[in-house]
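Troubleshooting log. The previous structure file for this entry was overwritten by mistake, so regenerating from the original sequence record. Sequence copied from the archived sheet and checked twice against the printout by T.R.
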Amino acid sequence: MSATTYYFAIVGSADSPLYEADFGVQRTENKHLHQFVVHAALDLVEDALFANTACYLKAVDSYNDWIVSAYVTPSNVRLMLLHEVKSEEAIRSFFVDCHELF
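Regenerated output below.
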């Protein structure tokens, strides 16, 4: 079984990062790339909000083997997760738990 990497970010309504964390295999050479991919997906999150009124937007972008999933709170705070394995129900549950704690 291969190990996977997760990069989680909470982005404020003014596109300012509020929190970020890496989980799983630590590859320091990819840290800035993770930030870049998630930041680039913010525009796609805004586009997805016009087509969908749900908080959980599922996969909004992908880059190479990584998938960016997003969750938007009613106060327009974006919870972003960069991951390699697609598991929508587990990711949705993670976002809901984070939103409740936030």
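The first helix runs from residue 31 to 51. Archived copy saved in two places this time.
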